[in-house]
# Entry
Amino acid sequence: MSRYDRDVLAGNWRRPRAVPEVAAERDVVVEDAETGFCGAVVRVEKVPGGATVTLEDRHGRLRAFPLGSGFLVDGSPVVLVRPTAAAAPAAARRTASGSRAVDGARARVAAASRIYVEGRHDAELVERVWGDDLRVEGVVVEHLGGIDDLAAVVRDFRPGPRRRLGVLVDHLVTGSKESRVAASVTSPHVLVVGHPYVDVWQAVKPAALGITGWPVVPRGQPWKEGVCRALGWPVDTAAAWRRILAAVGSYADLEPSLLGRVEEVIDFVTAADPPEQTQ
# Structure
């Protein structure tokens, strides 16, 4: 009998190893092999022709991918499959700012750091969208009634490494009075940022109010009253503001130029405390 009576190359000798299936259960951490995006599973949704899995990375960014192959768990290829009904991930609850809500969290004792805004309307808008986040962080928002005396306000606040101050200013554009006032503040523990709008009303997207755009008010006329007249609203700025504020359901109803500045201020005042100096 020949020692080689069987063809050693016959058959499916190169058959690949089976890729294991992993249920896309909530908080399972996976990586998309193509893009390198790594995050925890937050939900699985049906879409025409299949399903998607949404991952959230450590920065809170969300991305959806087709459910199936092309994922890694601990560096090894896997196929993500639908979880059982009992283990299916529920959609994470979101705050109005788009952040993941912290269920059961209590408001922290107010921190030493603060956020100052120009007026009551600014404060109410920030509260409406970012209020849940700020309570978790223990950050208080106060309104100044104008920023003409900002330099004196900052001195009275006595900012420091563990006592930061963030200031949000209206109409902070080159050459404006507001830009000159902001430039007078030079403390490294104070951040002054602003949006380009004459008033924070304009930071609400017109579509949220069912209008095509904010009217142009001729110079020399009170801006808010002019807006009311142009839109055919009663000339009652308090009632107009209630109408505007009621139209804001989340960050999606605000202009990006305001969103970015508020997030920047919140990041500044909630940054980790510097280490204690040792003698």
The helical segments are 120-137, 150-157, 177-183, 206-209, 223-231, 237-246, 256-269. The longest strand covers residues 38-47.
